[in-house]
Design a protein that fits this description.
Elements: H1 2-9, H2 12-17, H3 21-37, H4 43-49, H5 60-75, E1 80-86, H6 94-97, E2 101-108, H7 111-119, E3 127-131, E4 143-149, H8 158-170, E5 172-183, H9 187-191, H10 202-209, E6 214-221, E7 225-232
This protein binds S-adenosylmethionine.
S-adenosylmethionine binds at residues 43, 54, 56, 86-87, 89, 92-93, 108-110, 113, 133-135, 149-151, 154.
Length: 234
């Protein structure tokens, strides 16, 4: 079934149909519905298939994203005492967070990813790694910075996402910063009237901005990514 779907998506018929607005809108609704209600594959399978499954080490777009994320963090002009990174993958951005942080707690759901991140380099004694599911497990509290990049897309249901955002805000110390980065979604999925049920792309960041305890400090939105830095109200 998956093979047939992939074949269809690479066909000329698919490309032609995508140009028809109504068709596109219905199609993206169905795609998002499917994504939302199908049980997600285990996160480990992404890393078992290949190392660096999203080409973070080589893709210029991703390298530019990391550079922009770092620029947002340094734009607030402070070192962060306690930092939490959720969804570290193989630790590419963790490397940039280490020098900015007094203490760095690094969590991921994938054991495979965590093992690779740990083996990536000799980390300082201030860096610790642990397995946690952001939806279900305790994540600690009183952080001066929380970075959640490319992770909130894993929670396609609006209600789950709202609960996770509340949890992130609660884990911040007053005045602490939250960096949310999301990969932009296809325009029909970002603009559709049904986005509050299945938020995608920049809508994920907008939802975070609706959390009463957070206020937006800075943002960087490109055609591919949406990054927003929030600060918890004192
Ligand atoms: C697309 S990668 C993003 C990696 C990195 N943050 C970045 O920006 O390059 C998503 C990461 O989030 C992790 N992840 C997915 N669902 C998670 C969950 N419920 N709790 C914690 N981590 C999760 C995955 O294992 C994966 O390492």
């Amino acid at each position: 079934m998956g093979g047939l779907w992939d074949y269809f998506r690479s066909s000329r018929l698919w490309r032609a149909l995508r140009r028809v607005t109504l068709f596109r809108s219905c199609l993206y609704f169905l795609i998002e519905l499917r994504r939302t209600w199908m049980s997600p594959a285990t996160v480990d399978s992404d890393f078992e298939r290949a190392s660096d499954p999203w080409n973070y080490e080589t893709n210029p777009l991703e390298l530019d994203r990391f550079r922009r994320q770092l620029a947002l963090l340094t734009s607030v002009g402070e070192d962060f005492g306690r930092t939490l990174e959720i969804g570290c993958a193989e630790g590419r951005f963790t490397e940039s967070l280490e020098p900015l942080s007094g203490e760095l707690v690094v969590l991921d759901l994938s054991i495979v990813a965590l093992e690779r991140a740990k083996a990536r380099k000799m980390w300082g004694t201030n860096v610790s790694f642990g397995q946690a599911d952001l939806r279900l497990d305790p994540i600690g509290r009183d952080f001066d910075l929380i970075v959640v990049a490319g992770v909130l897309e894993y929670f396609p249901k609006g209600n789950t996402l709202r609960q996770v955002i509340k949890k992130l805000a609660a884990a911040l110390a007053p005045g602490g910063c939250l960096l949310v980065e999301s990969t932009r979604a296809a325009q029909p999925a970002e603009e559709a009237w049904w986005w509050p049920m299945m938020p995608r792309g920049r809508r994920i960041n907008e939802l975070a901005g609706r959390e009463a305890s957070l206020r937006e400090v800075a943002s960087d939105v490109t055609a591919d990514f949406c990054m927003t830095l929030y600060r918890k109200r004192p």
